From TrEMBL:
Protein name, entry field: Stress responsive A/B Barrel Domain protein
Domain of life: Bacteria
Residue ranges occupied by any Stress-response A/B barrel domain in the UniProt entry: 4-100
Family annotation (Gene3D superfamilies): 3.30.70.100
InterPro entries: Dabb, Dimeric_a/b-barrel
Amino acid sequence: MAGLAHYVFFTLHDSSPEAIDALVNDCNHYLDGHDGCTSFLVGRRTPDLLRPVNDQTFHVSLQVTYESREAHDVYQTHPRHLEFIEKNKPTWAQVRVFDSNL
C-alpha cells in the first residue's frame, strides 16, 4: 500500500516570534510520534526567500508522511491530534492542508 503525505500551512492571527514558537512547540508535542508516521517535520517560514513563487502567507509549516492512508486516518481522530486542534484553533487565521498519495 502506498503512503500518504500530509502538509499543513498555518497562518496565525499573532505573527510574533513567541506565537510562532508556541505553535511549533505544540506541533512537536502533540503531533509527532503517532503510529504509522514515517517522517515528521515542522518549521517556520523562511522570511528571506522572496522569489515570486514563494508563498509568504503562512507562518508555520507541518509535513508528515504516513506509511498508509489508514495510518493517516487513525491520526486524524487520535485524542492528541484533537487536543492540538482544540488548543490551537483560536490562534489560526487560516489553515491550508494538502494531502497526496505517495
